[in-house]
Write a structure and sequence with these properties.
Blueprint lengths: L5 E7 L3 H9 L1 H7 L5 E4 L8 E10 L2 E12 L7 E8 L7 E13 L4 E12 L2 H33 L3 H32 L3 H10 L4 H24 L3 H22 L10 H18 L14
Antiparallel strand pairs: 1-7, 2-3, 3-4, 4-5, 5-6, 6-7
Helix pairs in contact: 4-6, 4-8, 5-6, 5-7, 7-8
Length: 302
């Protein structure tokens, strides 16, 4: 069974020549397209399509290098333009073996915008296993990367924010998101639910006059709340609200911890320095997460 082609469509408020240049010039294309680290046009022969080579760094010193052939057209109906693409690689670690696709630029004269869309498909390496891997992981991932790249391009054309700054904010936001999810899950599960550290119970009993049993239940409930909040960091879309909540939570946690056990102020990595660091990271996250690029702004089906 053959997998469905990748399809991505977005509307961009810009001029045709400006968009054409940003997508057809290698130095500009490689800035916004997450699928490529570099694109190099090869010497062009007369009356032949443009050949190019591309590279995609995948980390740990590894990279995939491939070839491509592209041809653009200015002769569509109502000012439409198209660009066809034939691509492939001989690199054995690449899931993609060879494929074809196109870009299409459709002017929306009534809205002073351009519908920019792509569709492409490819054959995969590794036989049946490669087709299964492509269906479950790689095709959704490369489709997401294409859609995210299209939104970065849209924001570059409309708001003039450079792709590098957009990607910096995007990946910084996700790095901080994973960090906070880990912190809340760890502190909810390990010292409260799994092992019930004596200091947790001692802090509760220092704040409120309760029995050991009641203090233990308060610690358990607190641990459950922290686990839920850690999961929210992975599942809830509006991260700015979570960052804002933490800006309020961390000062309260710091004051509570100091009131419960003032002696912790002389400990290494004490509540004051630890929570202040998390507060600062929360503020950074709050500001960098404003108006982030997103793959969800694109249409993924015709």
């Amino acid at each position: 069974m053959k997998n469905k082609p990748v399809y991505v469509e977005i509307e961009i408020q810009t001029q045709m020549d400006k968009l054409w240049k940003a997508t057809q010039t290698p130095e500009m294309h490689e800035q916004w397209d997450l699928r490529f680290s570099s694109i190099t046009y090869l010497p062009k022969k007369e009356n032949e399509p443009q050949h190019f080579s591309y590279k995609r760094k995948i980390g740990f010193g590894l990279e995939v290098e491939g070839w491509g052939i592209t041809a653009g057209s200015h002769d569509g109906n109502n000012g439409e333009r198209t660009s066809s693409l034939h691509f492939g690689t001989e690199n054995t670690i690449s899931p993609i073996m060879e494929g074809k696709g196109y870009w299409k630029y459709v002017p929306n004269n009534s809205q002073n915008s351009i519908t920019f869309l792509t569709q492409y498909d490819y054959d995969v390496n590794f036989g049946k296993f490669g087709r299964l891997l492509d269906l479950l992981m790689f095709r959704p991932m490369i489709g997401w990367g294409t859609a995210l790249s299209f939104d970065v391009l849209k924001r570059w054309m409309e708001k003039e924010e450079t792709p590098s700054s957009q990607y910096f904010r995007f990946f910084t936001n996700w790095f901080i998101t994973i960090l906070f999810s880990f912190i809340w899950l760890y502190h909810g599960l390990i010292p409260k639910l799994f092992y019930m550290h004596p200091d947790e119970i001692s802090m509760v009993k220092s704040l409120v006059s309760v029995s050991h049993e009641v203090a233990s239940w308060i610690v358990i409930i607190t641990g459950i709340c922290e686990v839920i909040f850690g999961l929210l960091w992975l599942l809830y879309k509006n991260k700015r609200i979570l960052f804002g909540m933490q800006v309020l939570i961390f000062p309260l946690l710091t004051i509570t911890a100091i009131l419960a056990q003032p002696s912790t102020l002389i400990h290494p990595f004490n509540p004051l320095t630890f929570n202040f660091s998390l507060l600062l990271i929360s503020l950074i996250g709050y500001f960098v997460s404003k108006d982030l690029p997103s793959a969800t702004t694109c249409k993924r089906k015709r």
